[in-house]
Design brief:
Nucleotidyltransferase, domain 5, alpha/beta, five-stranded mixed beta sheet, 2 domains, binds zinc ion, binds adenosine-5'-diphosphate, 287 residues
């Protein structure tokens, strides 16, 4: 018997199965098209295995409120076919086993908390900086959810004095995702982030925004570890710049671990999300 995991991203789904020790014994990457087509391939993959449970970490927004009639649905996404789709229901209908359901970033936070760079910490916040910005957190050993799941990417930030870009979030002015996710960098400079490596001002501005986010998460949640993942964080010069901007902003008002140990890269590299899904699958068996 195995654990199954679905890291459901807006671009691709990664599915994996593991043994009891959470060693991944098989995995597949599937393009996210329309639900029927994508899930057909998900089923083909999992049908080969006898599964104890499945953990899903999904792109959002999703409904995680167990009292809601649309619990388990993807909600207001613009992705064709996925809006109001009963994702959890579709998986449960196919496999009559326990299924854990949370956001992709909550799953990644859980993976880092249990097995990654936060494994010796009491709490952990995980932020992905990619096509969008999203954050998840583990507090008291559980992923943080309330009436809904956190939407940490849409935090309001102060505009950098040299920034003339409007941001791409259709909902908010001056929101972190709109000003600092990968597409904002591309729109501001006319080139993708990976082509701008040597442009120091690009990363200083990026750090200015991300540090504001982290300062606000610190003030509201006081996590013990902040793990930063996603495509944009592949720029290695960013982490030290973020720490330094954070230091300037916070002015030592609140205590944290040393910033080198506080604001860190994922210990599980690109496997934080899928590992978290496997661990949540195992927890769901015991629930
Ligand atoms: P997703 O968010 O879709 O899951 P990623 O985390 O890979 O995917 O994020 C994709 C975004 O990250 C794109 O906007 C891309 O331009 C940017 N990106 C990817 N690699 C790099 C890099 N090496 N440097 C800067 N930006 C990058
Ligand atoms: Zn926004």
């Amino acid at each position: 018997m195995y654990y199954g995991a679905i890291e459901a991203g807006g671009t691709k789904f990664v599915c994996a199965v593991s043994n009891d020790q959470f060693d991944i014994i098989d995995r597949v990457s599937i393009a996210t098209t329309v639900p029927d087509e994508t899930l057909d391939q998900v089923f083909t993959f999992f049908d080969e295995y006898s599964l104890k449970s499945i953990g899903i970490g999904s792109f959002g927004p999703i409904d995680v409120n167990k009292n809601s009639s649309t619990y388990g649905h993807v909600t207001t996404t613009p992705k064709p076919g996925w809006r109001n789709f009963d994702f959890l229901g579709a998986i449960k209908k196919r496999y009559h086993i326990p299924v854990a359901w949370t956001t992709d970033v909550n799953a990644a936070a859980y993976g880092e908390y249990k097995r990654g760079n936060a494994k010796n910490s009491e709490s952990c916040l995980y932020l992905t900086v990619g096509t969008g910005i999203g954050g998840g957190a583990v507090v008291n050993g559980r992923v943080l959810e309330g009436y809904g799941h956190p939407e940490m990417g849409h935090l309001f930030v102060r505009l950098h004095p040299d920034d003339t870009y409007q941001g791409f979030c259709p909902y908010h002015e001056n929101c972190l995702e709109g000003l600092a996710a990968g597409p904002a960098i591309e729109a501001r400079y006319g080139k993708k982030g990976d082509q701008l490596e040597k442009e120091d001002h690009v990363w200083k501005m990026e750090a200015h925004y991300l540090a504001q986010g982290i300062a606000n998460y610190t003030l509201t949640l006081r996590p013990e570890k902040v793990v930063l993942g996603g495509g944009v964080m592949k720029q290695k010069q960013l982490l030290p710049l973020i720490r330094s901007e954070y230091r300037n902003l916070m002015k030592e008002y609140v205590s944290t671990p040393d910033l080198e140990d506080y604001i860190v890269a994922p210990g599980l590299k690109d496997n934080a999300g899928i590992t978290g899904c496997l661990l949540l699958a195992a927890e769901e068996c015991e629930a």
